[in-house]
Structure formats: structure tokens, C-alpha cells
Amino acid sequence: MKTLLPTSTAGSLPKPSWLAQPEVLWSPWKLEGQQLIDGKHDALRVSLQEQYQTGLDIVSDGEQTRQHFVTTFIEHLDGVDFENRRTVKIRDRYDASVPTVYGPVSRQKPVFVEDAKFLRAQTNKPIKWALPGPMTMVDTLFDDHYKSREKLAWEFAVILNQEAKELKAVGVDIIQFDEPAFNVFFEEVNEWGIKCLERAIEGLNCETAVHICYGYGIKANTDWKKTLGSEWRQYEEVFPKLQQSNIDIISLECHNSRVPIELLSLIRGKKVMVGAIDVATNTIETPEEVANTLREALRYVDADKLYPSTNCGLAPLAREVARGKLTALAKGAEIVRKELEA
Ligand SMILES: [Zn+2]
């Protein structure tokens, strides 16, 4: 990446109201058939345009073609029954009705590759594509077949690796795996979670990232955060092993979060996507606030490895709020870039 402090988002962006109901997760589509296919493409174009206008350096599809960051990928796999749902506690935090794994999981055809090709044709900027991580996929399902979270995660890692290689082949520059579950199941992360992640990126000759956050700004998450005390030290449990792993970039939450910034020293040497935008509030950050978060992070991350970003996806926010926040992100990064270049 030639630009210093290249900006990007952690993933999702709001969808237009003609495509899906705004400001909710798992929002049902408002179109069907060919209209839905065209609508998703149009929304992707609008989302890309907004990323250009707000000044982002690394762009994405804004996840306009998916209903949810985990379930949309799983829907395309064999071995999972979406009719037969069970209620399970996900992220050890809240109940959700989830599909059941009833047999061997496999991917018969690519899931996002056509969408990525479409995005590639619209832009010359670097593209980042998000996929769910193996552990977070396992944690969003009821497993009635493998009866082992580790085994199922390994199978998903193999599938994700196939998809990731095809995404790279159509021109994706950075492939990101979303692993909010890494912030909850520390023992499993260290035993097999990181191993599965490394299986998912095996042989991939593009940059790779893992996104670990405290979730969208939904009530179940904000309630959970209230129980975490004055210092959020969860990253401390998984950073040492991640620092040793093959993953290139670690995407994490910083602004307005109680994560002690010095924990970044545990991943020294890695590129870091620093969350300088809070996704759990409608208050739009000022560029100076963004700059302050970045300056703090620069105490622990080399300037050429710092990627200003958002704490998590912005899908549940109003579009105007999201636009304001992205503008602040780009302007804040520009302030610090000038300081570094002075
Ligand atoms: Zn997130």
C-alpha cells in the first residue's frame, strides 16, 4: 500500500431503504428475483460511490449483497438445514434461532466471487473482502453432525480457503475473516481457532486480515459490554498467539472502547486496522478525535503498518450517520498523515 495510513471500514455499510429495511440486522430483502439481483448491484455501486466521496482508500462491497455477515455465507453450503432451526446461545451472550448442520458441509459453487468480480470492474482502488471466520461460523449454528466445534471449524476453514483463493483470483487485494468469537472463547482460540484461521489462508498470495471486535452496536452487545468492567483486556488472551500466526493484518476496536491501548504492543510487527470510529453511537466523531486515537495507536504501531478503520460494521446505522463517520475517518487520517510527513 503506497498511501500512508490507508483508510477502510471493518465491513458492512447501511443498505438503501429500497433494498432492505434500514437500521436493523437480518433485514429482509424488499425485492425478489431479477429485481433483487439488479438491486443488490445498484446498492453496491451506491455504497462504493459513498466510499469514494467520503475519501476511503481501501474500498469494499459494503456487504450490500448479504443479509448477514455469517448466515449469508452458510446459506450457500451443503450440509446445513435452514428450515430446521434451533435456538442456541451465540458468543456465549444471546439466544438466536440458527440453522442446523445435519451432514458433511461443502461448497458446491462460489458464494461471493461474482459479486467481487462486479466490484473489481467498478474500481481501481484496493479492495478488501470480508468472510466469516471458521470459529464464528461454528458459533452461529447448531451442530447435529460433527458434534465437535473444532472438527466443524476445520471443515469450514477448508471451504473458506477455496472461496478466498477464488476471490483473490478475481482481483481482491485483502481478504478479511470476521472472528468476533475470538473475543469470547479464549481457550478454544488458542487451541484450535488460530490453527483453523491459518488453514483458511493457506497458500493465499494476497494480504489477509482478521477482524476481532466487541460487536455491532445492538442491545445484546452494549449490555454485555457493561459487564466487562473498566478495562477490556480480552485481546490480551489471544494477541500473543496471533502475533505468531501467518495472518498479516489484525483489525480491532479502539475508539470509545475500554481496550487499554498498550495491548497493541502484543501484536508488534503486524499491520493493524485501528478502529477509530465507534459504531455503537450516532454521535459523529470529529476528525480531531479520530486523529487522537490514531496518535495513541502510533505509540505501539509503526506508521507504515497503521490502517485507520472503524470498530465494526456500520450496517445498523442511519446512512447519514455512517457517511458522517466515514468522512471524519478520512479527515482524521489526513491530519495525522500530514504530521507524519512534515
Ligand atoms: Zn465487528
Write a structural description:
- The structure is a single chain.
- The protein has 342 residues and is an alpha/beta fold.
- The protein has a single domain (33-341), classed as TIM Barrel (Alpha-Beta Barrel), CATH 3.20.20.210.
- 38% of the residues lie in helices and 18% in strands.
- Strands 3-5-6-7-8-9 form a six-stranded parallel beta sheet. Strands 1-2-4 form a three-stranded mixed beta sheet.
- The mean pLDDT is 95.
- Bound molecules: zinc ion (ZN).
- Zinc ion is lined by residues 10, 180, 211, 213, 312-313.
Q: Write the CATH fold name.
A: TIM Barrel
Q: Radius of gyration, Cα only, in angstroms?
A: 19 Å
The multimeric state of the shown protein is single chain
Helix content: 25-40%
Mean pLDDT: 95
Percent strand: 15-25%
Cofactor: Zn(2+)
InterPro entries: Met_Synth_C/arc (IPR002629), Met_Synthase_cat (IPR016456), UROD/MetE-like_sf (IPR038071)
Keywords: Metal-binding, Methyltransferase, Transferase, Zinc
Pfam family, one: Meth_synt_2
